[in-house]
TrEMBL record:
Keywords: Membrane, Transmembrane, Transmembrane helix. The chain crosses the membrane at residues 296-313, 348-371, 391-415, 427-447, 453-474, 486-508. The keyword Cytoplasm does not apply. This is Calcium channel YVC1-like C-terminal transmembrane domain-containing protein.
Amino acid sequence: MPLRVKSRPVPSELPLPTPSPGKHFSRVGAELPDISVEDSFREIVKKLSIYIAECIQLPSTFEQLRTTTAGDDLRHLVEHLGHTCTHPAIVNALLALKWHYGAMTEDKGLNDARANSCEIVAWRFLTHLSEREAVDYCLYEIPDPAPSELRASGDEEEGEVDESSALLAQAWSGGSESVRHALSQTGSSKRNLLLQSISRLTMSMTADADGDEEDEEDDPTAPFTNLNALEIAAIADAKRFLSQNVVQKIITGIWNGDIIFWDNLSVHSVKKPRFYNPHTADPFSRLRVPKYLKSFEVLFFVVFLCLYYAVLAERHPHKVTPLEILLMLWFAAFSYDELSEWIDAGSIFYAADVWNIFDMAMIAIGFTYFILRVIGLETDNGYLVDLSFDILSLEALFMVPRVCSILSLSPYWGTLIPCLKEMGKDFIKFMVLVVVIYLGFLTTFTLVGRHTFTLGMMVMQLTKIFFGSSYVGFDMMRDIDPVFGPPLMIIFVTLSSILLMGSLTGMLSNSFSRVITHAREEYLYVYSVYVLEASTSNRLTHFYPPFNLLALVIFRPLRLFLPSDNKFRSARILLLKATHLPIVGVIEAYEWIRGSAAKGTQYNGFRGPRRAIGTPSLGGPSPKKMTGARPPIRARPSASSLPGDSLRPQAFREATNNVSRQQQAQSRALAEASELDALGEPLTDTEARIAEMSSKIDRLTELVIALQSAQSKTLGDVAMS
């Protein structure tokens, strides 16, 4: 007997359930952005922001966007960009949007999801490229819409930035008209300017063309001018993007000098990324290699430390010795280099490196020593002279670890430093609670035991108890007060020795466990920032300390009344070559012994062809082309479009179609495997099957090509007959 089911109408007033972030949910009608090579950087950012805003409408974690259906729209976007987009600034635009969404404070969950989406699309887009194509996209600098003559000729050596300049400071270095303007455009002020710029862009992303033309003079993307994709990634804290294998391969190439930005030290040199060619490059361009910069920095600090020990061992109280004069010159060169870096970088980016904090402490101690030493000698005050040497003794607390800072470039030590940094932050936060509790008990014990203990005595006794000497509290509790002393002291000992110390230990352990899981990304981020700051400077000449004092003494006064013309720049280049010739000789000898100078004309470590990427129209002259770029690679015609296709056997066409489908599947599988490898996830059986499938496809491809050649020969014979 059939069952009768009576359905009830759903009340229309009931709210619809909120969809799950893991379920595919996107706005209907979201169109993929059509990006052409003629689009400006501003237009690219606008088109991408429209698509991201329409597709990502729910808060989602990074893993949900990467592994669940919540990221289906992102996969469609990656495939679309991989097949249709050849604009060189596409990665720059995605990372700029990542920075924008990550810096927004309102609706944090949704904006974080959008920021993660931009980062995922950026690194998945690189998986569709060869390694040499990835170099072109990652190192492409957004050109200036209206470059000045100085920037066109690469004459930024007299600008306000150098190899230690921050990434943001480099964007405005060429257009600075004065030191005041350069300082006003650095550090946190420039970071706020970037946020306001992209915010104005995304808020006006629905504006019409007329509105865009009206705002053309105030381009909100102008702050990103002359920044490449890797620099924008460092600004945006795109640590997962920077930890990708292909990106780290590029950064390692820059670190070793296989990829350089300056290949000639002349007045008309132009900054652009290129592979190092030992046969055509200027040997003095090797001074800009980050590996050699770091090596000389370590050597500089070793000599610094030796002079420091020699002066303290000599310790002459009545006159300034030659060793002490040399130490002061070393201090001056070191201080000038560090202070110029701090001015250019701003406090936010300068303090990101923990070793820079050590540098500032060293400068403060050295300056205090110099002032007290001079005053003591002038007034013949023995106390001030002894005090100056005692203060100089504090320098070892920072100088010795600074000499060993080279260890931070090691993966082992480099992963521990971020952990110690985060644990230190948590420790300082926890000590606020400790100080509050400590002040309460200190006040009570001081007032109750005022007849027996002074404030200073009580501070020392409670400090001993807090650091583990519990027996001190039990010995003195009756001396404080027979009635209130014992119970109060038992409570204080219990809080300090059991509750507070146990909580502190557990919190630091959790902090270490939380950070160590992402320590590799933190280490690679710090390493990447150092390499980029050391190599992508817009300044043509950079004097190593202490030679920077010569440039300061000779050329800075001349700039007050002489123009910065070609002769002025030629003089700086001549001084650089004269002072750094021994260093260049050592570098050349090292590379000759190591055999790296005989690599060839291009760095062979990057696989794949280099296709010509498009040239965008940014309202100015065409941007610089990558050195060694090849003509566009034409797509091969498919087997079905070849002449005489109707005469081909049906089996041959089916085999060709099967090869095409298998190659597409292989490409998608390899992209997923590359992403898993970049994330550091363990490999599964999928990768093994991919490798086996790849070998089978290669053999099948050879068979199809042989059949195609035979068929073409047969068709040719038929045509001749």
